[in-house]
């Protein structure tokens, strides 16, 4: 996934530089002077592709995406598409640098989501093959780490907290709601049984419920 994003950043960077280089003199019918300008439709096409990349890599709430949206319109007397692109260029390059430096929380969540999905896939196979206890450990490990990473990404300090405390912190901040909130109540107990090898207290149905919860949680938040 990171390789694809890196390639996309490079592609859009090249397209942006080509668009900047395509500037030509345009006549101002009011002042009768000339000014450098680029094609508005070409800029629109690049903006759409760049915004899609920023959403996927940085997130809707990131400073990069918000700054991009705030500066993407060409309005007002004297404004040009070229001037707009120059502002967006600075934002795009900042996002590209942070991506290459590994400083983007959204991307970290995407990668974590892929890892958790692998754990859940292994858990499903183990459960299907009759290895309930192995499946329980894999599913509960994915669940706990996913909850902690989601909490940290939303500004909660949960590094040294047990799972019950993490669940409580997520609920208090309103980060889980509805069916997820109700299902979470049973998860810490199942996790404790799995991590302390109390296998007789865990049923196959319990493991299936953890697997199902994690799958939905990943779809919603990663």
- The overall pLDDT average reads 85
Strand order of the largest sheet: 1-2
Overall spatial form: elongated
The CATH class of the largest domain turns out to be: Mainly Alpha
* Rg: 24 Å
Task: Say how many strands there are.
Answer: 2
Number of domains: 2
- Biggest sheet, in brief? 2 strands, antiparallel
Which architecture of the largest domain does the CATH hierarchy give at level 2? Up-down Bundle
Helical percentage: over 70%
Low-confidence residue ranges: none
Q: H/E element string?
A: HEEHHHHHHHHH
If you had to describe this structure to a student in words, what would you say it looks like?
The chain is mostly helical. It has two domains: 2-100; 105-221, Four Helix Bundle (Hemerythrin (Met), subunit A). Helices cover 70% and strands 4% of the residues. It is built from ten helices and two strands, in the order H-E-E-H-H-H-H-H-H-H-H-H. The chain has helices at residues 2-21, 40-57, 63-70, 81-100, 105-128, 132-153, 163-172, 178-184, 187-195, 204-221; strands at residues 24-27, 34-37. It has a two-stranded antiparallel sheet. A hairpin with a 6-residue loop joins strand 1 and strand 2. The model has no long low-confidence stretch (mean pLDDT 85).
Write the layout of secondary structure elements.
Elements: H1 2-21, E1 24-27, E2 34-37, H2 40-57, H3 63-70, H4 81-100, H5 105-128, H6 132-153, H7 163-172, H8 178-184, H9 187-195, H10 204-221
Antiparallel strand pairs: 1-2
Could you give a quick summary of the protein structure above?
This protein has 222 residues and is mainly alpha-helical. The chain has helices spanning 2-21, 40-57, 63-70, 81-100, 105-128, 132-153, 163-172, 178-184, 187-195, 204-221; strands spanning 24-27, 34-37.
